[in-house]
User: Which sequence fits this backbone?
């Protein structure tokens, strides 16, 4: 059964810092991986989707990488801003042969960027 | 570009009452999902529908029923609400093609309180 772990559970940084959020998974038969952000009291917003043929994806100040051999994904945030404060979740979408239907989430990293 | 629309956004029920949460997506996605999110428990899958005409149980289906009305709409029904069903409910959709899931999109959530 796939398990997704995110470290750290919480992170507080001053504005302007570059930071890395980590996501690890137990089943390396992962086809693609998706990163989300959730603001307090809000829904989930998709940030990046790394498909099976890709090793990384970039969107603005965000860069996500996927290393299937080591069972890890990282989300890099450059020049952090207070508006980046949110909980960041990584998830393993379902695929045939895996836990079909169930998007396996990590518990998330709660990021706070101080002005 | 509405994406995934959930109604209502807030609801208070008395124990034993019934209600239906509505969800509609306009992205022509095949698959739809219902999740609940509780503090410390993360997101848990209640039911999902891989394609129109099919539904399957997720991790926590007890006390719920679903209907995939058509490709766009997927409803969640609580027949006899219990305080343990107090939670935030999220609907999501994705494209599932040749065994790979592409790009989950979430609704903004329904905050349900059962008293």
Assistant:
């Amino acid at each position: 059964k796939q398990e997704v772990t995110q470290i750290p559970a919480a992170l507080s940084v001053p504005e302007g810092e570059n930071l890395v959020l980590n996501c690890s998974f137990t089943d390396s038969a992962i086809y693609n991986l998706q990163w989300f952000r959730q603001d307090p009291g809000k829904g989930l917003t998709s940030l990046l989707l790394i498909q099976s043929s890709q090793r990384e994806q970039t969107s603005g100040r965000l860069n996500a990488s996927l290393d299937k051999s080591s069972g890890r994904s990282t989300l890099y945030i450059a020049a952090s801003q207070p508006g980046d404060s949110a909980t960041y979740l990584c998830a393993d979408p379902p695929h045939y042969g895996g836990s079909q239907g169930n998007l396996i989430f990590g518990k998330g990293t709660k990021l706070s960027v101080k002005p | 570009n509405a994406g995934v629309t959930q109604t209502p956004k807030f609801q208070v029920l008395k124990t034993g009452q019934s209600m239906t949460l509505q969800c509609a997506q306009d992205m022509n996605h095949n698959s739809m999902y219902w999740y609940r999110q509780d503090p410390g428990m993360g997101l848990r899958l209640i039911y999902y529908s891989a394609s129109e005409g099919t539904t399957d149980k997720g991790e926590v289906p007890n006390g719920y029923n679903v209907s995939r009305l058509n490709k766009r709409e997927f409803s969640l029904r609580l027949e006899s609400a219990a305080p343990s069903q107090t939670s935030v409910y999220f609907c999501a959709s994705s494209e599932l093609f040749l065994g790979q899931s592409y790009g989950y999109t979430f609704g903004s959530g329904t905050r349900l309180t059962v008293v």
